[in-house]
Amino acid sequence: MMASVTTTPEPATDAARVLVQALVACGVEDVVLAPGSRSAPLAYALAEAAVPAADRPEHAPALRLHVRVDERSAAFLALGLARAGAHVDGLAAGPARPVAVVTTSGTAAANLHPAVLEAHHSGVPLLLLTADRPHELRGSGANQTTDQVGMFGSAVRLTVDVPAPVGLPDEARDLRRLAARAVAAATGARTGDPGPVHLDLAYREPLGPPVGPWPAPSTVGLTHVQARPAPATAVTTGAVPAVTGSATASATGTEERRSGPGRLGGIATVVVAGDGAGPGARRLAEANGWPLLAEPSSGARGGPNAIPAYRLVLAAEELVSRVRRVVVLGRPTLSRPVQALLRRDVEVLVVVPRGAQWPDAARNASQVLLEPPARMRQGRMRGPVGWLEAWQVAGEAAAAAVDRELDRDPADRGRRSRSGARVTGPVLARAVAAVSVPADVLVVGSSNPVRDLDLVARWDVPPLVLANRGLAGIDGTVSTAIGVALGLPARRVRAVLGDLTFLHDVGGLLRGPLEPGVDCQLVVANDDGGSIFATLEHGDVAAGSPAHALFERVFGTPHGADLAALCAGYGVRHTRVGDVDGLLPALAAPGTGLSVVEVRVDRTGRREQSARLASAAAAAVGAALR
Description:
- By secondary structure, the chain is an alpha/beta fold.
- It contains 21 helices and 17 strands.
- A six-stranded parallel β-sheet has the order 2-1-3-4-6-5, sandwiched between helices. Strands 13-12-14-15-17-16 form a six-stranded parallel β-sheet, with helices on both faces.
- Strand 16, helix 20 and strand 17 form a beta-alpha-beta unit.
- Helix 3 crosses helix 16.
- The chain is globular, with a radius of gyration of 26 Å.
């Protein structure tokens, strides 16, 4: 019965081509495809659009296509491309660029879910194009058919169940309108809340290969969606419109009531810059003379106000007890001492320019603002005399103490390899930070690597640091890093990640011979297991006790995997570093192509090392503040 209304011999092919034209017209430049049969109409259209201009069919748009056989890896590759898309025009972040990922039906679509959740929580625009059976086959037991509509729940900004095309005259117009709405929702053009969008696209046979020409491009149905203006974050010296409503009056009024116009009575304020805070956090801190506690992926880690080793400095009660206000930008997730600071009896101002939610894990936010108040942006809310200087002295003392402890000869504790001093996690992170210049891109895995980097990194002008901190999972990090490298081919991209993170997404190394190569160095801290648990409460289990074997099995999880053999199987260049002396040479010259530097990291005594670092820093900070 459906066939009787068909006005074209290839409705699925025509619809796929119109959708691809519309997505490109709306700003989509990259698409990641996992192969499948039901998605064949889209696959053919994307493949034709991706060929060189001289061979491209008439009316086919130009785009970049990336093919991966594993849908989970494909989704994280798209996530990395989307993260990179905000930085293609320079070192500063620009507007997000949506990336589409295409799958066939069934479990293929379900494998997108981990990346969807990360994109949802970190505000990354993804377009999920999942092919599906037509409605008459759903619930019939047809092969690879499940209920895909709404399968991502509340993690998507928009879900549309798109019926199978039959060739009606208005279908092309409706598809263009759908593309415009989907891209607007993914980029947060109207809501200020970017994230993933799910289009479940039903297709009936015939599914291809196509035989007819592409339709002529048309703007009919391509709705222009005006984007929301970006909130003000820049520091200025002139008149700046203030935030409307009582929040701004309260934020500035508090300053006036407590301190008056002079600096002697200024409120003791610190800035906490979490993931994605942006350079505005640094500008606010420097304009007002406030200490800056910035995570590596904040985009604000640098300059004279950035306090090194800040999580150890936060143990200094003589400093922390004086804090009266904390300004939070981005999403801080790395440090328990920072969360403890936010739980204190302090005024907490959370600046969140987009999205419905705001970071307040300590449940202590006094105000949630769309943008910093005008007085703050103008540098008219400075702290007390000597406030910043005290934090700078403490930070320098803590950082120097950390360096001294890390540089101690490990032979004193019996941990040397045959060739030299064995590497620890913080030593590796310090070396990675040292070789990362401002034009570089550094992708950091969750767990210990990002925390080690947070402890030791010191940059005046930092590299671009990206991390999947939306849910802070270890999955998909290899593919994310490769996606970032594909999206920023003119910049040197390096990733630092743990061995479990690497193994979890080792399939991300797989690249078919028809796919473009990528320059990316993956630095893997291989401590044969999950050493982060030793730094948590679980690490209280002493080595040699009966419970230690239990700890190793369910938390330490040694694996004994041969990373060199895995890399060889994927055709990826591999280098193993076993001591400190070999570390910097291996990192400094990554070469071309995809490569893995496996650094054998010692996790013996990880908990004790953390305690020694904290003790050394506490003593140094105490002496410096006296």
